[in-house]
C-alpha cells in the first residue's frame, strides 16, 4: 500500500489528494533507529510532502524541512515527480529520553517550516514561515494560508507501521455558479476522519465515508516508493569543492581514504587517494570510470 489518488468535487472548485504508505514508510524508518514519537512525525511528514508534490507541474523535487529548537531539531522529507520519497530526522537523544510531552509543539519547539521547490531545469523556489499550529497538519495549512494565500486542509496520521494523509484545497477559479458552501462543508467532513480509518481503510472507503453525499470524481492512483537520490557521482562532486591537499590530509588521518555516508539511506561511498586526485583532474582528462 503505497499510493496517491486525486479526487475532485464536481459541484465546486475544491480538489483533494489522499495517500497511504506502508513499504515506503518502513524503508525510511529502517535506515535509522528512531523513538516512536519521531517515527510518527516522519510518517506524517512523508504523507504531507507526497500530497503537496502531487501538484508539481514539472520534473523535480519538493523538499519539506522543519527546523526547531525542541528535542527534534530537524525533520526533512522529499518527494519528486516520480513519487519517490525519502526522509530523515535529527534529534537530541538525551533530551528525548527526558521528554514526557511528545506532542508536535513540544518536539519541534519554535522554528521554521521551509518548503523548497527544486526543478531539474530552472531556479529553486523557497518559502519560509514560522512554525505555528498544534500539529504538523496545522503547520502545513498555515504555510499555504500565509505563503500561497490558498485555503488548504490537511489530515495526517502515522503509527510506526502505516502512514497516510488527506488534503483538500480550494482551486483559484471558483465562480458564482459553483457551490459557495462546498469548502466549509468538505473541510468539516474531513475533520471527522479518524486515524484508524485513514490508516486502515482503502482510499475508496475513506472517501465514501466522508463524501458519499457529494459528487466526487476519483482519479487513478499513482504509485509512491522509497528512493534515495544519492550517488557516488554526487558524493564526488561534494568532495571536489574541497582543496585537494586538504582532502589528502583528511584521507591520511583516516587510513588513506574518505568515506561519504548518505544521511538518508546510509549508503557509503569510499574514495581513496587515487580517487581524490582523479576528482581534481580537469574535466576533459577525467577518466570515464569516475562516477
Question: What's the arrangement of secondary structure elements?
Answer:
Layout: E1 3-9, E2 14-21, H1 23-29, H2 36-53, E3 60-68, E4 72-80, E5 84-91, H3 93-98, H4 104-108, E6 111-119, E7 125-130, H5 136-148, E8 152-158, E9 163-170, H6 182-190, H7 195-200, H8 203-211, E10 216-218, E11 222-223, E12 225-226, H9 232-240, H10 244-253, E13 257-261, E14 268-272, H11 273-279
Parallel strand pairs: 5-12
Antiparallel strand pairs: 1-2, 1-10, 1-11, 2-9, 3-4, 3-6, 4-5, 6-7, 8-9, 13-14
- What is the β-strand count? 14
Radius of gyration: 22 Å
Strand proportion: 25-35%
Distance between the termini: 34 Å
Which class of the largest domain in CATH terms?
A: Alpha Beta
CATH topology value of the largest domain: Hsp33 domain
Which stretches are poorly predicted, pLDDT < 50 over at least 5 residues?
284-291
Order of helices and strands: EEHHEEEHHEEHEEHHHEEEHHEEH
Structural class: alpha+beta
Could you give a short account of the major beta sheet? 6 strands, antiparallel
Total discrete domains: 2
What form results from the Cα inertia axes? elongated
State mean pLDDT (0 to 100 scale): 90
Helix content: 25-40%
Oligomeric state, counting identical vs distinct chains: single chain
| Tally of separate helices | 11
CATH architecture of the largest domain: 3-Layer(bab) Sandwich
Amino acid at each position: 500500500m503505497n499510493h496517491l489518488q486525486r479526487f475532485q468535487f464536481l459541484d465546486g472548485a475544491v480538489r483533494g489528494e489522499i495517500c497511504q504508505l506502508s513499504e515506503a514508510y518502513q524503508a525510511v524508518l529502517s535506515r535509522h533507529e528512531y523513538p516512536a514519537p519521531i517515527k510518527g512525525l516522519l510518517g506524517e511528514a512523508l504523507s504531507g510532502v507526497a500530497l503537496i508534490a502531487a501538484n508539481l507541474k514539472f520534473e523535480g523535487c519538493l523538499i519539506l524541512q522543519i527546523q526547531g529548537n525542541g528535542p527534534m531539531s530537524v525533520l526533512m522529507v522529499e518527494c519528486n515527480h516520480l513519487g519517490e520519497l525519502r526522509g530523515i530526522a535529527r534529534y537530541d537523544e538525551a533530551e528525548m529520553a527526558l521528554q514526557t510531552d511528545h506532542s508536535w509543539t513540544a518536539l519541534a519547539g519554535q522554528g521554521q517550516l521551509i518548503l523548497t521547490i527544486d526543478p531539474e531545469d530552472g531556479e529553486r523556489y523557497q518559502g519560509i514561515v514560522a512554525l505555528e499550529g498544534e500539529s504538523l497538519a496545522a503547520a502545513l495549512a498555515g504555510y499555504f494560508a500565509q505563503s500561497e494565500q490558498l485555503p488548504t486542509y490537511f489530515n495526517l496520521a502515522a503509527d510506526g507501521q502505516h502512514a497516510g494523509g488527506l488534503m483538500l484545497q480550494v482551486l483559484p477559479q471558483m465562480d458564482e455558479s459553483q457551490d459557495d458552501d462546498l469548502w466549509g462543508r468538505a473541510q468539516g467532513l474531513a475533520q471527522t476522519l479518524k486515524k484508524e480509518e485513514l490508516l486502515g481503510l482503502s482510499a475508496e472507503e475513506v472517501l465514501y465515508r466522508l463524501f458519499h453525499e457529494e459528487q466526487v470524481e476519483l482519479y487513478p492512483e499513482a504509485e509512491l516508493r522509497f528512493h534515495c537520490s544519492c550517488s557516488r557521482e554526487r558524493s564526488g562532486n561534494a568532495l571536489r569543492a574541497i582543496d585537494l591537499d586538504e582532502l589528502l590530509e583528511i584521507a591520511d588521518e583516516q587510513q588513506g581514504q574518505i568515506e561519504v555516508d548518505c544521511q538518508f539511506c546510509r549508503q557509503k561511498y569510499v574514495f581513496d587517494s587515487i580517487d581524490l586526485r582523479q576528482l581534481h583532474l580537469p574535466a576533459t582528462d577525467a577518466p570515464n570510470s569516475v562516477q
